[in-house]
Amino acid sequence: MQLEQLEDRCLKYLGATANPMVPINALLEHCRRDAAFAELSEKQLLDFLRPHPLVQVVDAPDMPGEFQPDLLSVAGIDAGPRIILKTRIPGAHEMMQIMDQHLQNLIEVLTVALAKAGNSMEEN
């Protein structure tokens, strides 16, 4: 694997995205667009990024009980690791705004799911 080319591709993408917290799946998809990295796995990419001095890998928190990440995935919420350039780590105020937006998105998804579940129960 051409590590310098992979590094360049990742750093440019991470620096150009509107949201500084990039889901690993989005970064992996971007890397795979280059034929040299078409077979790159998520594990290989994470193994490359974790020790990298310019990026931070943020893993999803452990969820208690019978948490099923697939349910979030179906709802359009990616619970996987995220990658951020260390120079783009937001300050406290900006982080609160990002978290608020994520919570609003989650509330919208849960509201739709609750409505669908209610409609389904009424039909039965």
In words, what does this structure look like?
The chain has 124 residues and is mostly helical. The protein has 2 domains: 3-89, Orthogonal Bundle (Arc Repressor Mutant, subunit A), CATH 1.10.10; 90-124. 56% of the residues lie in helices and 8% in strands. It is built from 5 helices and 3 strands; from the N terminus they run H-E-H-H-E-H-E-H. The termini are far apart.
Roughly how many Å apart are the termini? Answer: 55 Å
Rg computed from alpha carbons, rounded to a whole number of angstroms: 17 Å
List low-confidence stretches: none
Counted up, domains total 2
Q: Helix amount, in percent?
A: 55-70%
Q: What proportion of the residues form beta strands (DSSP E)? A: 5-15%
Strand order of the largest sheet: 1-3-2
> Structural class, from secondary structure content?
mainly alpha
Outline the fold blueprint:
Layout: H1 3-16, E1 22-23, H2 24-32, H3 42-49, E2 55-58, H4 69-74, E3 82-85, H5 92-123
Antiparallel strand pairs: 1-3, 2-3
